[in-house]
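User: I'm putting together notes for a lab meeting next week and I want to include a structural view of one of the chains we've been expressing. I don't have a solved structure, so I'd like a prediction I can at least talk through. The sequence is below, exactly as it appears in our construct file.
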Amino acid sequence: MNTENPCARAPFAPSLAADNPPPGVAQPPRRYNWSYMKSVLAAVVLVTGASRAAPQPAQKPAPDVPESRIILEVNRVDMLFTVTDKKGRFITDLGKDDFSVVENKRPQTIQEFTSESDLPLRIAILIDTSNSIRDRFRFEQQAAVDFINSVVRPRQDKAMVVSFDSSAELVADLIENPEKLAAAIRSLRPGGGTALYDALYYACRDKLQLDKPRYRFRRAVVIVSDGDDNQSRVSRDQALEMAQKADAVIYCISTNITRIESEGDKVLKYLAQETGGQAFFPFKPEDLAQSFENIANELRHQYAIFYRPDPFRTDGLYHMVDLRVKNRHDVIVRARKGYYAPKM
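Assistant: Thanks for the context. Below is the predicted structure for the 344-residue chain, given as structure tokens.
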């Protein structure tokens, strides 16, 4: 009876022809192909090591359930900001020692300071194509095209175009070609509801965070809308949180020309103020071009600082930051109000 254990032979082991020699015949010495065995063992080690080291693929959130939390992997806080006088004129001759930073009522040490005028730009242009702006849509398109032509520098800056009515749609991805961006803007047609928050959330989460490290790029969102959202799946604060996590400054151009402040105008102001941007309210469609020009000028007249929070907390919470010019009451500092810490 053959009592050999069928499981005793390792997989990939070579067959041994002299396992059972005839009775009375001397058993010859077993010959192993050591070169073959070594290659097999090496393959087993490589496969085992790869299986242990291979990261598990991240699960993507379902398309209809947007993810509102992302984790930052750095312990530095970078802040881009603008300083103007009370007439709106840029102040560009300040130095590191002119500023103070306070986080959660505790003074922080500024570790780097620069006057940033040449950082590569990453710009998301969000254009409202709902029915509410139909009568001035042509002016919006032309002003946005002029803005692209004056701001985007080939081989350095990139911009994207997102339209939103009943839903958000990526019309042009982050590219550096002004002509293609202009063609994308001219292709837009108005109609439908308003999903502003979805458009902002998508642009910040899926596009503006791609280039790393973040402090080497300046990210901005330009919103052209009346601010009256009625179709989004995410809330205003979820969209704002995603913009803050992307370190994106929001600039808003209102399309409300009634000269009466609407709830949408308040939304636009809030988004801009919380991220260190600015909201513009041109009363005539023809004035949209001036608003875009003001944004272009501001993007080239900003300061940048970075500090390491003391103490550094990995709690995933929002931390308030107060950035000021020391001993100056005649200036206005526009900077984001805080940041989201990583959560470990």
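A couple of points you could mention at the meeting. The chain has seven helices and 14 strands. The two ends are 62 Å apart (CA to CA).

User: Perfect, that's what I needed.
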